[in-house]
Prior knowledge:
CATH topology of the largest domain: Jelly Rolls
Shape: globular
Distance between the termini: 79 Å
Strand content: over 45%
Number of domains: 2
Structural class: mainly beta
CATH architecture of the largest domain: Sandwich
CATH superfamily of the largest domain: Galactose-binding domain-like
Amino acid sequence: MKKAYLFFVLLSVLTSCKKDTTPSWLVINSVNFTTNETTEGVNSNGIEDVWVYMDNQPMGVFDLPARIPLLAEGEHNFIIYAGIKINGINATRTKYPFYQRYETTLNLVKDQEIEIIPSFTYKSNTQFVFIEDFEDVGIGLYKDPSSDTNIINITAAQYPDVVIYGNNCGMIYLDETDSICKIATSSNLNLPKGEEVYVEVDYMNTNTVLFSTVRENVSGSIEDPLVIMRAQDESELKWKKIYFELKENVSYDQNATSFEIVFTSILDSDLSNAVIYFDNIKVLRYE
């Protein structure tokens, strides 16, 4: 009898101590990104996840679309950062330093969803050192002497299924005769050492592309390979966005006076021809 009594007492205590784990739900299916196209270029972005903070406490990093459980109710403050993949690598996700964070106050209700669409812009102190959107007559990329072909400007009228940003984009065509293309920024870039520097690029490619930086110092020009952009299958060809992080590359040589960015593509050995499209090439730093 005593054992039964103690069991019911213990059960009562455990039941009364049990916490309510019914969550509220924050739903983020998509985000908005806007730009001043005149000074910042078009609003293409590669935001793939969100970094969520509630009342200044980290809730986690969530792939989009996201349905986020929160053990809270009532009014709370939220800060949300746009997440990207550095150099296109899944394991190197980070808050993109040049996007302004999104802030809002939400009233959470247990077992109910509240959906928001965070809006992001570039930070006001972002400096666009270089923008090539292929909308002008000239192209701000030059053909290296080692290259036997060049990037050309194509229009939406010519390629309506390809050009999706503005009226033009850049195209490189490779075949067994013209099998090498190497292009670089036509002006030396002033990039700060020890600070955030990124290059944004929209691209489609059926051939491998090497992205490099070139540093200029008293000894001459030194090329530093950074990322290999793997070829896409022709049947699944689509525009992608990549964010190249250059902080280490720029800071490595303290004697470097200026930099260039370089794209090199040599026809892959298993192909007889290939095509590469570029658009919205941006080099970003802080003012």
